[in-house]
Amino acid sequence: MTVVRYTGCMTGKIQMLFFSSFLMGMFAGAYFYVSFFAPLVENPDLDLLVDAKEDLIVEGIMYGGCERMNSCANFQLINGRDYHYTVSTDAEVQTGRLSRSFAQGIQASLSDGALYAASEQVGAYSCSSHVDGVDYHYSILKEGERYEIDTCTTALAYNDALQDLFLDIWYTLENPDTIESEQIEFNPIDLLWDRFHNPPQN
Q1: 107 shares a domain with 190
Q2: How do the residues of the chain divide into helix, strand and coil, expressed in percent and rounded to 5?
Q3: How far is 93 from 135, CA to CA, in rounded Å?
Q4: What are the pLDDT digits (tens) for 122-164?
Q5: In this structure, how many other beta carbons lie within 10 angstroms of the beta carbon of residue 49?
Q6: Radius of gyration in angstroms for the set of CA atoms belonging to the chain, rounded to a whole number
């Protein structure tokens, strides 16, 4: 029976193997940090898993009696989150970002079926704008398809859920203090996977 004694000393080859593994690990870690984690730190919103393409653009404008006072507000929402809002034609443009949960609710509510039904033309017999009140016009671009929706001339009045959604958007933009702050949670493995398969375009 042969007994192998461990002398506690590494051979030159083993030492070289450990040293090479250490260097490889160090360089790999530096590469992943520079390529993946550093951009996350530089981006305070950490919103890398949300598709940045403008697949959904919602524009809203008031018209009617507010035109006489130059007080017709308007807004533009990109992907239900990034907004531009003005309280009147001459007012300074306000910009910001809605909460992720609110944006997801907007995207879920603006289904193709709901938009198509609400954009059907109807007779403009009795509209608020006809009696010095205010009506609302919405232009929605979703995945290349544009929908024109109006509280006076289209069937929006028959869709209470969609009307409530637009009123919520107006209220939130008029009262930016109500926009929820949110804790952004992310899984580093998911972010690495997303960055590997969808590298940023320069």
Answers
A1: no
A2: 45, 20, 35
A3: 21
A4: 987 789 998 989 999 999 999 899 999 999 999 998 888 999 9
A5: 13
A6: 28
